[in-house]
Amino acid sequence: MSMRIRTSTVTALTCAALAAGAVLTAPTAGAAPRTAEPAFLSASQLPPHPTSSWTAGPVTDGFSDELGLCLSTEGVPVHDYRHRRFWTDLDTGAVQLTVVTGTAAQARALAKHYDDLIRTCADRIEESSADVEAEGRDYGTLPVEEGAHVRGLHTETSWGATDIALLSVGRDGRTVTVVKWGQMGDFRNAPVAAFKKTTSTAVDKLY
Question: Contact 17/75 with Cβ under 8 angstroms?
């Protein structure tokens, strides 16, 4: 996704996420062993694009930089992070992150932490950059596995760049997944209903 936010903005937001993440510094000693890798979305399960098909990249170890505008691994325990990127031939992209924690309680805390960071992301963007206006919207929860929450984020810069993103956090047992979709535009261009379906599929498909 093309989020035209300057590097200084992303850096400042990472620091903000560091401060916000301090509540999750409990150690992971004694974590239950992982029994299976969580499954990822396929390209066909993303919100349909009107003129271009989706392409899915490989599943890759580690945290996704595409989530760095709002989220971070700073201040939280070390977990098993994996992600998969998706893109179209035009200016639309998506990413799914999975996080396998040690216990269901850790996953519950991490899901809440990430949802809180997404909820407060617009305010942190505006605080860190006078050149950017940001607005967040709450699209509610979904009754899938242990639940999921869907939110939207619109940013507009002083030089005219405008971007829209949909983000969700869901949980199945001790695994958390984050899904992000984004493109140029505003809330009128956001496929909320289709993204909710994608989020439900992502959480339900984990195991």
Answer: yes
Q: Quick one: pLDDT at residue 19?
A: 40
Buried residues in 102-132 as b, exposed as e (16+ CB within 10 A): beeebbbbbbbbbbebbbbbbebbbebbeeb
pLDDT band at 137 (very low <50, low <70, confident <90, very high): very high
Find the length of the chain: 207
pLDDT tens digits for 10-36?
334 444 443 444 445 443 444 444 458
CA 64/CA 76 separation, integer angstroms = 15
Name residue, tokens 């699209």: 139
Alpha-helical segments (H) within 22-71: none
What is the tens place of the pLDDT at every residue in 170-180?
999 999 999 99
**Nearest residue to 94 via CA among 24, 193, 198:** 198
Q: Give whole-number Cα distances, 180 to 25, 32, 46, 129, in Å.
A: 25, 28, 10, 22
Helix ranges restricted to H, 21-133: 104-119, 121-128
Beta-carbon-side half-sphere exposure of residue 59 (alpha carbons within 13 Å): 12
Q: What is the DSSP letter of 146?
A: T
Nearest in space to 48 (alpha carbons), one of 186, 181, 187, 204: 181
* Other residues' Cβ atoms within 10 Å of the Cβ of residue 82: 19
